Amino acid sequence: MKRSLGLAALLLTAGPALGADYVFVAAPQKDLNRIYRVDRLTGEVGACQYGVKEDNTGVTLCFPAGEGAGKQEPGDYTLIASSHERESSVFRVEQRTGTMSVCYVWKDQVICTPPGR
Q: Span of the secretion signal (predicted)?
């Protein structure tokens, strides 16, 4: 009984680490309804926004990771939006090293600049 309880406790604590953990932030541009997301472990960035079809129905438009926005070295990533109200991009920050990239939607994907300090 003790052994199975210990195994169950181990599985419960290990479970969340196996799942994806994301951070979400809105683009600072006041007239843009775009939300960015980053995988906290891999640094992969994507974005979605609301769109309207020709028949006036709503649709969620999502932009996958493109150049520079894909998986990075494992780390502790977050997103930060500037306070510049005309800016549509966000910063991807690796919190352990302090490196940053600027990420934005270009055509049909999210791209990020090379990381810098």
A: 1-19
pTM of the model: 0.79
| Domain range summary for the chain, segments of one domain joined by + | 21-112
For the record, the structure tokens of 53 come out as 């079809």
**pLDDT tens digits for 80-113?**
999 888 899 999 999 999 999 999 999 999 999 9
Bridging pattern class, strands 58-63 and 100-106: unpaired
3 contact partners, CB below 8 Å, separation of at least 6: none
DSSP annotation of 11 reads: H
Coil/strand/helix, residue 117: coil
